[in-house]
Amino acid sequence: MGFETPQPPLSEYLEWTTTGHLQLPDFQREYKWEEERIRSLLVTVLRGHPMGAVMLLETGNDQVRFKPKAITGTSVPAGKEPQFLLLDGQQRLTSLTQALTSTGIVQTKDAKGKLIKRRYYVDMRAAIEGDDAIDGALKSIPHDGKIKTNFDRDVVFDVSTPELEQKEEWFPLRLLYSGWDGAAWVNGLADKDLAAQFTNRILKPSANYQIPAIQLKKDTSKSAVATVFEKVNTGGVPLNVFELLTATFAGDAAYFAQHGEDFRLNDDWQAVHEQFKKESVLETVRSTDFLQGVTLLATRKRNRESTAERKPAVSARREDILRITLNDYLEWRDRLVAAFEWVAVFLANQHIFDKKFVPYPPQLVPLAVIRVVLGDEADYHSVNQKIRQWYWCGVLGELYGSTTETRFARDVEQVPEWAKGDGSEPITVSDAIFQEKRLYTLKTRLAAAYKGVYALLIAEGAKDWIKDVTFNKVQYTSLKTDIHHIFPEKWSKANGIDALLYNSVVNKTPLAADTNRSIGGEAPTKYLNRVKSKSGLADDAIDTIIATHGIDTNALRSDNFEAHFAHRKGFLLDLIEAAMRKKAQREEAPADVEELAAEYDEEVDDTGDEAEAD
Fold first, then answer.
1. Alpha helix (H) residue ranges in 180-221
2. Which residue spans within 180-288 are E strands per DSSP?
3. Residue 501, burial from CB neighbour count under 10 angstroms (0-12, 13-18, 19+)
4. What distance in Å separates the CA atoms of residue 461 and residue 485, rounded to the nearest whole number?
5. The dihedral of CA 177, 180, 184, 187: what is its sign?
6. β-strands 138-142, 115-123: how paired?
7. Coil, strand or helix at 122
8. Contact assessment for residue 555 and residue 564, using Cβ atoms and an 8 Å cutoff
9. Are 105 and 118 in contact (CB under 8 A)?
10. What pLDDT sits at residue 517?
11. 173 and 104 Cβ atoms separated by less than 8 Å
């Protein structure tokens, strides 16, 4: 990647922006500077102080064919091809272009965020007093040149015409770089001495104002553009691969030639996302997740088709996403959309119905890609059983919390063949370990395994204690189901139970919102009477229902937390082992609760418990 560091004068930048010689890449966000920042920038220019470098990208490189768009506020004709694209400095050059050219009207916002239009002037007599006076001399007024009071009924100051501007000796900054027009305006002043001083102290120095540039050469790659942009972006908002590809796809000449219009990735994603929003669990899928899925499929295809000794890798890394073409996207787009919709059904079959209980949203990406690779075979019993094993090993082994791109690629390569019985065990399955002591510290939805255990309980056939119904997808939603304490927090605190134990997933279970309110904060021996009264069921029937949660009803009816915890822990370990289809690491001796508690942080518990009754 080559670059130069020229220092063009501001006048040259203004010529470039107004003629379209310099434009923005389509991925750049919209102009958004507020009035005070614009005013401060203009003061910087008038004082001759540095405003920082801008970054330009030379056009004409087939690797980086960004669709250009004109600087906001200019009248560059459509189809004008720029010589440079502005990667960094949009807000500054847009502000200067609007304030210093054409009408000088800048569309901005006030301190309260209200949209306003302003013009900028220099009080000439104040400005010639010296550098320190420039700040006070720079004036910002409404775009019509009139300052009004009494709810805009009375005009108290008026520079709405060149004659009035000259009369008030307020120089319009729209003429600062207009050459002859600016000089003629100044020479038209009645006070020739003021005109001469202003010319020498303000106009001539401003004419030489330079802005340094980092000018990237034509051979700069897309990934380098993204990296450089993120390093220098003064807006503080990182550029993501979706925005870069939005621009590069829009610049695809072949698509334009065939369809007569640009491909708008953002519009296409919005349509996809609207489909996904029909299923709560798919609302977690982001635009970049979808692009990762496309990239995994595109790189996998290249890997399979390559005859090279060193084949291209299957990958979802950022640099590989940036290499995908519009043809890649269009080839896999529809199949990937259908695969994500299949993922929603798959999750429902695991009794994961709600986006807030999706254990690892990133794991949905390789899951969807695996579905594309396998096609309908993914629903064959033996194949689907292995996919389920892989999924739960990822969740309960907590393997999708970091370095996900590497694991994505491995799983996409290994799982399909293994699921069909033709390959060795995937690393995600062989790496997955669940330790019994982890149950003590699973206490909030921040942990994927916590959400996984919750889903396994529902899948096991847990019933609501009062309604006596299982939590299928319809009942789950209509009953406002959430995870709640079994031995209530209030009771546990009053009876000296360690927070590590009563907040553990071992002491939590799915219940309807109404049932949870009936439980309140009392001892099980008391709240079970309310359950009996509301359900109209006999004690043995209630015990049968509660047992579907893996709860020892004898321990519950004797307020024996210790027996309850030991029984429930064993039940959950059995569920986990069945889901992972491998043994957990069980304790050889009772856990040292004090030692575990020393590692226990004070996160706010996030169960769906209602305010517990007295």
1. 180-187, 192-198, 204-207
2. 213-216
3. buried
4. 18
5. positive
6. antiparallel
7. strand
8. yes
9. yes
10. 86
11. yes
> Which neighbouring-strand residues pair with 68?
25
388: Cα within 13 Å, side-chain hemisphere: 22
The residue among 215, 238, 198, 191 whose CA lies nearest residue 13 is 215
Rounded CA-CA distance 452/507 in Å is 15
**What are the Cα distances from residue 159, in Å, to 43, 146, 237, 246?**
20, 6, 39, 44
Q: What is the pLDDT of residue 186?
A: 94
Share of the chain above pLDDT 70, in %: 92
Cα–Cα distance, 106 to 123 (Å, whole number): 19
CB burial class (10 A; 0-12, 13-18, 19+) of residue 410? Answer: middle
Tally of CB atoms within 10 A around 607: 19
Angle at which helix 265-276 crosses helix 241-250, to 10 degrees, equals: 130
Beta carbons of 141 and 119 less than 8 angstroms apart: yes
Phi first, then psi, for residue 300 (nearest 5°) are -65, -40
- What is the spatial distance between Cα 11 and Cα 179, in angstroms, rounded to a whole number? 10
- Among 158-162, 264-268, 288-292, which is the least confidently predicted range? 264-268
- 188, 161 in Cβ contact below 8 A? no
Mean pLDDT of the chain: 89
Nearest to 121 by CA among 174, 167, 192: 174
Phi, psi (deg, nearest 5) at residue 508: -130, 155
The letter for the amino acid at 139 is: K
Nearest 5°: the CA angle 432, 438, 439 is 115
* Rounded-to-integer distance, Cα 598 and Cα 399, Å: 24
pLDDT tens column, 382-414: 999 999 999 999 999 999 987 788 999 999 999
What one-letter code names the amino acid at 338? A
The pTM of this model reads: 0.74
Phi-psi region of 448 (alpha: psi -120 to 50; beta: other; left: phi over 0): alpha
Secondary structure element (H or E) that encloses residue 120, with its range = strand 115-123
Q: Distance between terminal CA atoms of the chain?
A: 70
Q: pLDDT tens-digit profile of 12-50?
A: 999 999 999 999 987 677 788 899 999 999 999 999 999
> Residue 555 is encoded by which pair of tokens?
């321990």
Q: Which secondary structure element, helix H or strand E, spans residue 57, and what is its range?
A: strand 54-58
Task: Pick the closest to residue 10 from 175, 215, 213, 211 (CA basis).
Answer: 211
The DSSP string of 532-592 is: HHHH---HHHHHHHHHTTT--HHHHHTT-HHHHHHHHHHHHHHHHHHHHTS--B--SS---
Token representation of residue 54:
């801008």
Q: How many C-beta neighbours within 10 Å does residue 151 have? A: 6
Residue 611 has pLDDT above 60, yes or no: no
The one-character DSSP state at 199 is: I
Measured between alpha carbons, how far is residue 547 from residues 457, 463, 465, 521, 575 in Å?
11, 9, 10, 21, 14
Edge-to-edge strand list for the sheet holding 84-88:
3-4, 213-216, 54-58, 84-88, 22-25, 68-69
Give the confidence band of 227 by pLDDT, cuts at 50, 70, 90.
low
SS3 of the chain: helix, strand, coil, percent, to 5: 55, 10, 35
Dihedral of CA atoms 273, 277, 280, 285 in degrees, nearest 10, equals 10
CA-to-CA distance for 396 and 55, rounded, in angstroms?
47
